Amino acid sequence: xxxxxxxxxxxxxxxxxxxxxxxxxxxxxxxxxxxxxxxxxxxxxxxxxxxxxxxxxxxxxxxxxxxxxxxxxxxxxxxxxxxxxxxxxxxxxxxxxxxxxxxxxxxxxxxxxxxxxxxxxxxxxxxxxxxxxxxxxxxxxxxxxxxxxxxxxxxxxxxxxxxxxxxxxxxxxxxxxxxxxxxxxxxxxxxxxxxxxxxxxxxxxxxxxxxxxxxxxxxxxxxxxxxxxxxxxxxxxxxxxxxxxxxxxxxxxxxxxxxxxxxxx
Length: 265
What we know:
- The chain contains nine helices and nine strands.
- The chain has helices at 16-30, 67-75, 97-107, 130-153, 163-177, 182-188, 202-206, 230-234, 254-261, and strands spanning 5-10, 34-39, 53-59, 83-90, 111-119, 191-192, 212-214, 218-220, 240-241.
């Protein structure tokens, strides 16, 4: 890393990518970097400071990422060699999602100095108990620290991709892009269990795309839901349901959640 002034943009659903961004930020700062941690969902990509090294952190969704994360990448200004590194978090295989996002950035003139995917606790299918999740996080933290040190020392590299991984990224991008269609939104929409809802409006406040409004009860009345699991995972009354979800995962405690989701940019 030639430039030690760093802006890290992160998007997180249930908290894994935020924890990854925080861990790598801490290691970078311990090694002489000045790091600004920014919520990707609240940022204006057109105003990205290309005089700094840029970090992009996101969760993997369907071996790709969420539509609005890809839009953020697409709206970033063209660069002339600005350093960038990309990190993803996922519960299993990512099919080189971070590397494919790196390819998108390289095509816009960025110098990709490293890409890395980190296995973190699953937040959808096969959610484990907290002890197992803590073990998974600790193993990932060691790899994050190593990657951050490689960035500082110039030893990090972009992951290799080939035609297969690029093709998979294209197809999964088409699939996740359909999530914002009206028929997908209607079919996959979460439901409020009114008997449980305490009307705290937390789900309204933490939705990254403002897809929930507060009426008599919270209402999923938009067509922008990314199915990132924030609302259903952090609802204090377990009042949000979906038929295919029987167990949820949250990576953050109350203080971390407020710092991550509710702070102003």
